[in-house]
Fold each of these.
Amino acid sequence: MKYVDEFRDQALAAGLARAIAHEAGTGRDYAFMEFCGGHTHTLSRYGIADLLPPTLRMIHGPGCPVCVLPIGRVDMAIRLALSRPEVILCTYGDCLRVPASDGLSLLKAKALGADVRMVYSAADALALAQREPGREVVFFAIGFETTTPPTALVLRQAAQQGLANFSVICNHVLTPAAIAAILEPPGGNAPQAVHIDGFIGPAHVSTIIGSRPYEAFAATHGKPVVIAGFEPLDVMQAILMLLRQVNTGRAEVENEFTRAVTRDGNLKAQALVAEVFEPRASFEWRGLGTLPDSALRIRPAFAAWDAETKFGLDYTPVPDNKACECGAILRGVKAPIDCKLFGTVCTPETPMGSCMVSSEGACAAHYNYGRFRDVPVQVTDTAASRNQETA
Amino acid sequence: MCLALPARIVELLDGDQCRVELGGVRKEISLALIDGAAVGDYVIVHVGYALTKLDPEEAAQTLALFAEAGLDPATAFAQDDTATPQ
């Protein structure tokens, strides 16, 4: 596949690994955070962690919309779907298995009789509302700036068509606020903050918002940001660029993903989002707490399509499972293996916390691709002879 | 969640729609979020919408940077400033 395969080339990866080892060979330690779950997934899936020198640590960030969605928001959707038989609740597949209160998830609510459906696109939810005029179709929308423009588009289309049986529960959140919260935890609990030398910036979020929004952040906090694509060579090049910035004392915004990201981003999509959404005063993030100006809500002009207004939905905060370390993992303070539940009662099949649900979550990525790295390898003669037989 | 893949536009359709191809799979997606897309362009597709057009020249330059970084580090670093894409 063009623009995919060449960004996964093994020989080029080996060359980049040598360059990274050379650049990191200064005798000091480095810690970089990849903000996006997409980058976390790439680091794990392609074994990039094994190509990095031991003095370079990658910290997984909170850029996984499923992972930062607080339990109370999922509860809101489950309550609506269970209490109103006329409602068809549509959402992206990632949301269906997020553990909520009372041992429920949207998928379990479906088993209890709620009409919950998975959609590939916001447009599918809108089309369902057109096909089912006797039902109330509610789209449970989540995602960062990447996923927000499609939601804005269907809301505007619903308004233009006067489609009265369609509405949206908006959970869209904003990247810059979350990155800032990693370095400045709300409430001033600075000891919880983790030391980070630089950030790998979002790939597809940045196609929409551009590289400009990170400039103030880099300048204010003195931390370099390198925007990178989601392919393995993109991530390795970004790590190299971060090392070079740190080693030369720079804290700039650089763009590795120039094939898709410009400084200004997608202005058409930005205008559409601004027309339909406005900032929420505050929004609760799992693990990060309640952050000001970190999320969007539907503008009053579109209130007829805002499910929270239409159905009078109230948000009730719910604490996480006490044993679950998702919060600390999302802040980069702990690693998945620091959690007692990891790989025991909490697995991708039976997730206890949100980081195990999405394949981009730090726990799911480590479970699927990295958990055997934690186990010392013992090569025995038996294993060696078996390998010879099968070779 | 932000998963998106580059796909080639093979046919423009009515209503801001188009058909794209990726690895032999064809799918109808929306072009409503971008302007000026044509058949043959690569677009980055996310939840059924093209987010942006892909710039082939920038892609080629980025690939060249990867190759350059993997050369003898001593010579690659001599070109540091010019090698960093902005």
Amino acid sequence: MVSRRETVEIVDKLIELTQHNNVVWESSKPPDNLTGTDVRIDLVYAAFHLNKHIRIYQKEYKLFMGKSRHTWDSEVVFEFIDPSGHSLLQFPETNNVVNLFNAVQYQNSKVSDFYKDLVGK
Amino acid sequence: MNFLLNASLSDYGSVSSIAGLFITAFTVALIFGIKKRFLFTSSVDEHEKSLGEIASKISGFLQSYSKNANDIDDAFAIADVKLRNIQNGANGYLLSDVKIARSKIKSYRSTGWLKRIDHKNEEFARETNTAINVVVEELKNVRKKILVGG
């Protein structure tokens, strides 16, 4: 089991590698086994680094309050997966996992390229 | 033994008043300790949230260190103030993590000709932010312990 402290360090290192484009994340539609009527996922992001497949995504899920009322909550899931995309190990949810997800989205949306093209810098 | 046998009522009174003084001082110290602990436990949630927000902000700034160096410096200064508040009521692992984070912030922000090693660089800024994130996670642990009455 990976401790929260180790997860913080792993995630911060991945943020650095992502921000420097040393780890490149590919986006794709979520596999069917991850979604359902109570769970929504827009995109999943996967990368291959140090011979390991890793995946990150934001999961929105129904939070039931009684029998009929519900609200939507969300969490970021960061995990090791096998080459077929099956989850092997989920890391504990730490505060900086959200920062990693933001860095991955930023890399994937090519915001910096758009800025350079638009402003010409 | 001789003192106890030969002591007058006044001597007993003097000893009792000295003992009373110690008990009063001990009680006052205890009350301040409880007050400090109470103030800390009631604000753990707020500390966790605000420090987490600062760490997230710094993480975003680190996307482009050269452009955001000043903002990073300011954010570390604010984080140091928060950490100082936390340090007042912290103990155990949290206290040692807070001290590590504060010493890294101090090293990062220190300037002057006496400084032997220049820590004002992206690598050390990331290391410092990781130390802040560790404090955030430890605050989460403390909050959980408080919830279960630990």
